[in-house]
Amino acid sequence: MQPQDLSVQYSRWEEVSVGAASGAGTEEASSWEGLSPKLCSRKLGVAMKVLGGVALFWVVFILGYVAGYFIHKCK
To answer: Out of the domains of life, which is the source (predicted)?
Structure first.
């Protein structure tokens, strides 16, 4: 048998969240919900996406360089 104080909440991405009805863990969710729009929109969001893209480019470039070095190394 399950306790009666559990609540089931559905997000718009169709994920199911089951938690206690007393509100345990809502502080973490509300702090992320407040921070997420700031990091994903406006000028800061665009800057974060650009920096992430540049960082991803360099990671792939360096991995390709190292892999190419070992594949084409003269013996």
So the answer is: Eukaryota
| DSSP β-bridge partners for residue 7 | 19
Tens digits of per-residue pLDDT, 33-74? 777 776 777 888 899 999 999 999 999 999 999 999 999 988
For residue 60, the one-letter residue type is: V
Task: Enumerate the domain spans of the chain.
Answer: 6-71
* Assessment of whether the complete model's pTM goes beyond 0.85: no
Q: Which residues of 11-62 form beta strands (DSSP E)?
A: 16-20
The pLDDT tens digits for 4-13 are 666 666 666 6
Exposure pattern of 31-69 as b/e (b: 16+ CB <10 Å)?
Answer: eeeeeeeeeeeeeeeeeeeeeeeeeeeeeeeeeeeeeee
Check: CB of residue 52 under 8 Å from CB of residue 60: no
